[in-house]
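[09:14] KT: can someone run the structure on this one? pasting the chain below
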Amino acid sequence: MVIIVQSFSIQVILNLKVLGKVVLPRIKPYSTWLATGFALNNELGLSIAQRIRLPSNQGLFVLGSCPKQVKIDEHVLLTYGVNNYLGKDLTNVMFRIRSSPDFELFEESKAERLVSSIDKDYALTIPSLKSGDVTRHSSLYLTSLAFGAVISPMMSFRDKVTLNWILSQQQEDGSFDDNGPCFHYRFCSGEFRRQSLTAIVLYSLTRDNSSDYMPESIHHRLYDGKNNPIIRAQNYLESRLQHVKRNLLTRTLSEMACIQNKSITSELEKKIRQALLNRKLTVVPEDDSKYIEKIDENMSFDDQLLLNAMTISLYANFVDSRTASDIARWVVSQFQLHPHYTEKNFRGIINPEKGFMTAKSVYQRALPFDKPFSLKKVGKGLSPVAN
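[09:31] RB: done, structure tokens below
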């Protein structure tokens, strides 16, 4: 007879005394688990066990998230949450990350401010932590991406509450900013945080020509009036393009956000196009692929890949399919050099046996625009469909 604990997909063979042991995985304190099972017997047939609630751990827990692998001198984002499951309210809770010779801690919004080093612990006092509470912050970055993702012609969506919260973070000058975590240190740390967040919000709210099919109430909230939120955000980014010129990641993200907005002026569109054409592309002699080189020694390999991927989108918007596909070929060729590369992570994008399919895949995935143009030059044997 076999009993299967469905919650954990564990099979246990019972002994002659109809007893068996199941080793359960460690249960996270914020989760609730139910265990059940069923038994099969040749004579008695099927029997189903009654569900039981598994006991959860009680205490004060810190749950953190950090990349599994980090290169020397690389900046990564550490996120954490403090969970109170002691069954009583607490005050003045001290949270500490001990110093280490292996790393230094910087403030997310101010990358130049060191908060922990080899001989200095990082300490934070939480004034009040109620029972069952978790220290959480609303994230403008994540909320905007999620809101933009669900605006689709395939679903009915009228979430005014989330939209109102996003728009409440817009400042007087048209920019977007908040005090919450961003979870994207490349864009949200340092002096260009506000420009990056504004670009992310504008991109999320206007991506894929969403103004053509979004509900009328949301369209009214975003686009009505000469001083609507979209125009204000775009005007802010336009005024800061020259200021962020030396940070090409933020500059390119801002250009992507502006260029896909239908209300963009022809003057701004020409300015973005000219700036794009002025950027030097290095040609790889072996396959004539092209890429933008690292602009300074502090730019990481991930930053360079991200910069070139966004550049593909800009060239695609200006209907330069040849240059876009040339850069796409270079991006693809770099995937296997990435320290976190595995076939599983890049399945569906990389096809070692059909290199032209890879370039086409990256090329199409990079298109946030709805402009028809030919893909015939991407690779021999392709059958272009939509876009």
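[09:33] KT: thanks! The chain has a mean pLDDT of 75.
[09:34] RB: yep, looked fine to me
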